[in-house]
Amino acid sequence: MNELSRPRKAVLIALDSVGIDPFGHDRPDSVYRDSEFLFPKGRSGPVIRVEHRCASGPVQRGILVETDVTGGREHGGMECALTYTSIFSGFDAMERHGLMQGLGLNDKLLESLVAERNLFARFPSACLANAVFPLHFPSLRGSYLQNELPHVSREEAEARITYQGRPVRLMGKDKWGLAELFTAAEINQNIFVYAARRSGVRLRTWDDVRNGQALTGSLTNELENDFNFRSFGVEPLPPFTPEQAADILAGLSEEHAFVFYKYQLADLICHTGRTDLARQTFQTIERFIGALLDRLDTRETVLIVTSDHGHLEQVGFTAGHPKSQVPTWCFGPDAADKAQLLSRPQGVFTVLDELAKEMQSVGAAV
Asked: N or C terminus of the chain with fewer C-beta within 10 Å?
């Protein structure tokens, strides 16, 4: 690799609940059947070459790797905390912990792994692009920010918050808005928030979203704006297109050596059981990634897009998170050489840690 093509930055994107279609992404019923470039037509296998033609003409080339997030385990639940621990620590969290018996919130073993090795801390400047949710709901269980945010009880939520114009109901047969509220607030429960705090990365807020310096988990703010939180002093957010969101993330990558963003909305869509919504969600993802590739120079910036576990690919016939392989895309110099590492989630840490070390050695030489 010559000096001009040496990567100097990294962007990591995590897609919640996006797995490899075990029956093939080309089949007529597949959620990915209309994919423009992320799932190339007529090709399958553990490693696939992919390419995106940018709006300005150049072609960005990369690979799609089938990543095993379960380690062959069959008994227990597949939750995001396991995969993110592997990604942010480089340890095999599945081997250390095993599958989950719950949601894995505030799991001390997983926290200890991230405390020992932390991807955010490997880079001279790192950014968590997700804005944290501005309120804490004890009824939604754990949070890494419960001591810093206003607490809202279930009774207060039901009396003062509306979802799509109706009062939220968090219990009982007439539940309304519970899954949506959990999805919007789940960012505060993620172990990568714990990792960001430990490494001193600034936690961004909804004010940063308004100023074009952060993103919410829904990317476009559509989920967040379905709620009315004004009685708690929280105003609506500006709507974004996937392309505007890509502009924001590309801008953050100009300011930081490493940027991480998690797209959360797919998890909510999975639990609707609706294939039509799943296809729309994947189209949003592909528009976002395509627009980001239009804005990044992958000779200098490594882009990795991965997922914590599957579900979107099987939305029509499974209620829980299936133990399927997940896709990992990598764009940048020598992407094909990283395929074997990216076959497990802890390999994402290894690839990015090697990049961070290269950055440090170049900086030291200069």
From this structure: C
SS3 state at 304: strand
Please report, for the chain, the start and end positions of each structural domain, with discontinuous segments joined by +.
Answer: 3-365
Q: CA of 308: how far to CAs of 68, 98, 206, 348, in Å?
A: 10, 15, 24, 12
Which tokens belong to 66?
């089938």
- Whether residue 14 contacts residue 307, with contact meaning beta carbons closer than 8 Å, is answered with yes
Instruction: Encode pLDDT of 265-289 as tens digits.
Output: 999 998 888 999 999 999 999 999 9
Phi-psi region of 13 (alpha: psi -120 to 50; beta: other; left: phi over 0): beta
List beta partners, residue 130: 215
The closest alpha carbon to 12, from 365, 241, 345, belongs to: 345
Query: Residue 164: which region, alpha, beta or left (left: phi > 0; alpha: psi -120 to 50)?
Result: left
320/47 Cα distance (integer angstroms):
27
Q: Beta strands 47-53 and 59-67: pairing type?
A: antiparallel
Q: Strand runs (DSSP E) across the chain, as ranges?
A: 9-15, 47-53, 59-67, 126-128, 162-163, 166-167, 227-228, 258-263, 301-307, 326-331
For 199-231, the pLDDT digits (tens) are: 999 999 999 999 999 999 999 999 999 999 999
CATH top class, domain 3-365 = alpha beta
CA distance 205 to 154: 23
Question: What is d(CA 104, CA 349) in angstroms, rounded to the nearest whole number?
Answer: 21
- Residue 153: what residue type? S
Asked if 53 and 320 touch (Cβ cutoff 8 Å), the reply is no
Which phi-psi region, left, alpha or beta, contains residue 21 (left: φ > 0; alpha: ψ -120 to 50)?
Answer: beta
Which residues are 53's β-sheet partners? 59
Of the CA atoms within 13 Å of residue 333, those in its CB half-sphere come to 16
